[in-house]
UniProtKB/TrEMBL annotation:
Native organism: Erythrobacter longus
Pfam families linked: Rotamase, SurA_N_3
All copies of domain PpiC, residue ranges: 204-301
UniProt-listed PANTHER family: CHAPERONE SURA
GO MF annotations, alphabetized: peptidyl-prolyl cis-trans isomerase activity
Cleavable signal peptide: 1-31
Gene3D superfamilies hit by this protein: 3.10.50.40, Porin chaperone SurA, peptide-binding domain
InterPro entries: OMP_Chaperone_SurA, PPIase_dom_sf, PPIase_PpiC, Trigger_fact/SurA_dom_sf
Alphabetical UniProt keywords: Isomerase, Rotamase, Signal
The name this protein goes by in its record: Parvulin-like PPIase
Domain of life, source organism: Bacteria
Length: 453
């Protein structure tokens, strides 16, 4: 177990001793002493040092000690920076204080996971941490780990802060793999029953959610609810749901940024099932009281069970657009858009679209293969109800130009088949592993020696 020592370095210890003995009025006389020894001043430093800054940016003051491991204020601040930067919103000082408190709790849990893995000799190797870190750098900085190091430092965090989080996640995976997963069993009869119920529910809707779950007891229920309300406020102001889920959620989906994949209503607690039925993709709801605590849910997507999703249709489109003059008045813009819309209606189909280039100076761009779900939601329902050769209503702005989309072809998706036996078994196993993992973490907390400073 790694322990951050709080003992001074020899240089600082000698300096402190020199300052202490320099004032003979406050030092008691030593027995059989003849004369006070000369102060020890390494590097010829004066005994009375004047410091020009009230604070030390490198100071590492402990805020908690978990089974001997010191969690410092620096650790907390660097992790907070990861969250606030991902949110890209202004965070009030009150919100920062709440974030620091929550991050400290997360760091304590993270430390317990790492310590438990090391105690069972399944700790995470440095090579594994570096590999995951390099993968993140490849995704965001094109294989350039130095660029990611520099970026993290620029936002007030560090590579070590992110690597510590990676180590905690990998350690938890190791613990679950050894202590929980082997003892979760799912029978063939259970899987068969789920498949039969799926077939019976063909055509009903299922939902892909983002979730942020926090457990609550009778004693801390109000405090947890206040925390969840503040998280909702930050998310509504543009905060990153994925970032908040990774840092705060206690569900096993936290490592995936809260993504639950598709779930049926019957698998959701009552308050969640009731809420999602009225939600649209992109909508946020919560906090909702559910058994064991509270949850915030974000509807990523929804579809019908065992049915093809119309938004998986592949379209062939042509975009016809015009530019409006700079500084055009509202009246002139409205008239130009009306003329554009009227002209588009005269086109006899996709083969005729290029004529718009010479007739009205329009730009025409073809895209022969684009999924409906890749388009803005406002256009999806319009395009799904169009026939070949028809165009959408004009859309855009005076600054960015006005355009229409013409439908030139459409390949509808095939009906979705039932999930495989193995995928259903995996889903049931994951749910049971999640519940046992939460109990296991509570046991680690109960057995820990934690001191707060």
């Amino acid at each position: 177990m790694k322990v951050i020592s709080t003992i001074r370095t020899p240089l600082l210890a000698l300096g402190a001793f020199a300052l202490a003995v320099s004032s003979t009025a406050t030092v008691p006389a030593l027995a059989q002493s003849t004369a006070a020894p000369a102060p020890i001043t390494p590097f010829g430093l004066p005994a009375d040092v004047k410091v020009f800054d009230d604070g030390n940016p490198n100071e590492r003051s402990a805020t908690a000690v978990v089974n001997g491991y010191v969690i410092t204020g620096t650790d907390i601040e660097q992790r907070v920076k990861l969250i606030t930067n991902a949110s890209q919103t202004n965070v009030s000082e009150e919100e920062l204080q709440r974030l620091r408190a929550q991050v400290l709790r997360n760091l304590i849990d993270e430390t317990l996971k790492i310590q438990a893995a090391e105690a069972q000799e399944i700790g995470v190797q440095k090579a594994q941490i570096d590999q995951t870190y390099n993968q993140l750098a490849a995704q965001n900085f094109g294989q350039n780990t130095e660029a990611m190091d520099t970026y993290l430092e620029s936002i007030g965090s560090s590579a070590n802060a992110l690597k510590r989080q990676i180590e905690g996640e990998l350690a938890w995976e190791n613990l679950i793999r050894r202590n929980i997963s082997p003892f979760v069993n799912v029978s063939a009869e259970e899987v068969t029953g789920v498949l039969e119920r799926l077939e019976a529910s063909r055509g009903t809707e299922e939902y892909r959610l983002g979730e942020i779950y926090m457990s609550a007891t009778a004693e801390n229920r109000e405090a947890v609810l206040q925390n969840m309300n503040r998280i909702v406020e930050q998310l509504q102001q543009g905060g990153s749901f994925v970032a908040y889920a990774r840092q705060f959620s206690e569900a096993s989906t936290a490592i995936q940024g809260g993504d639950t994949d598709f779930l049926r209503l019957g698998t959701l607690p009552g308050p969640m099932a009731e809420a999602v039925q009225t939600m649209q993709p992109g909508q946020l709801v919560g906090p909702l009281a559910i058994p064991g605590g509270f949850t915030i849910i974000y509807l990523i997507d929804k579809r019908q069970v065992l049915m093809a999703d119309p938004r998986d249709a592949v379209l062939s489109l042509k975009q016809i657009s015009i530019e409006l003059p700079d500084g055009v008045s509202d009246a002139d813009a409205t008239a130009a858009i009306e003329r554009f819309g009227n002209y588009v209606q005269t086109l006899s189909g996709c083969a005729d679209a290029e004529n718009a280039m010479s007739a009205i100076g329009a730009s025409v761009v073809a895209n022969p293969e684009i999924q409906v779900r890749q388009l803005p939601e406002q256009l999806q329902s319009i395009l799904l109800n169009m026939q070949i050769g028809q165009t959408t209503p004009p859309f855009g702005t005076a600054e960015d130009g006005v355009r229409v989309l013409m439908l030139c072809g459409r390949d509808d998706p095939e009906d979705a088949g039932a999930p495989t036996f193995q995928s259903v078994m995996n889903s049931i196993e994951d749910e049971r592993i999640n519940k046992r993992a939460q109990r296991y973490l509570r046991d680690l907390r109960n057995d820990a020696y934690i001191e707060y400073n």
